[in-house]
Amino acid sequence: MNPVPEASPESVRTLPQGVLVGSLCPICERNELQGRQTVCSAACRRERSRQRERQSLRDEVMALRARADDLLSKIEALDRPRRRRRRDP
Q1: Opening angle at CA 80, ends 76 and 83, nearest 5
Q2: Is residue 63 one of the residues assigned to a domain?
Q3: 63 Cβ partners below 8 Å, 6+ apart?
Q4: 49/2: higher pLDDT
Q5: Contact 63, 69 (CB under 8 A)
Q6: To the nearest whole number, what is the mean pLDDT of the chain?
Q7: DSSP states of 43-73 as a string?
Q8: How many angstroms separate the CA atoms of 52 and 58, rounded?
Q9: Residue 20: its pLDDT value, please?
Q10: Which strand (E) or helix (H) includes residue 34?
Q11: Collapsing DSSP states into helix, strand and coil, what is residue 20?
């Protein structure tokens, strides 16, 4: 029996503590991230959350504008006078 479990190729491996990844915080771009960190501090985590919320709201507004434009074009189509077809005897 093997005492060390085998890791599958798809599994996530974390770096040992204290090992620097070498990438900077994507929010403040000042501090290096360590291990599994995605941002360097609580302040950067809050800012990232705000950025995501702003982007989500922008996306929602764009979708609403597109829907409003679609509805407006349908209303305009209803308001246009229709041509009557002449019947030839």
Answers
A1: 150
A2: yes
A3: none
A4: 49
A5: no
A6: 83
A7: HHHHHHHHHHHHHHHHHHHHHHHHHHHHHHH
A8: 10
A9: 47
A10: strand 32-34
A11: strand
Confidence check: pLDDT of 7 > 70 = no
Query: In the chain, how many domains are there?
Result: 1
Rounded distance between C-alpha atoms, residue 89 and residue 37, angstroms: 82
Rounded to the nearest 10 degrees, how much is the dihedral formed by the CA atoms of 50, 12, 36, 34?
-150
pLDDT score recorded for residue 3: 64
Range of the domain at 57: 41-78
Is residue 70 a part of any domain in this protein?
yes
* 10, part of any domain: no
Q: Is residue 67 part of a domain?
A: yes
Return the minimum-mean-pLDDT range out of 16-20, 28-32, 58-62, 77-81.
16-20
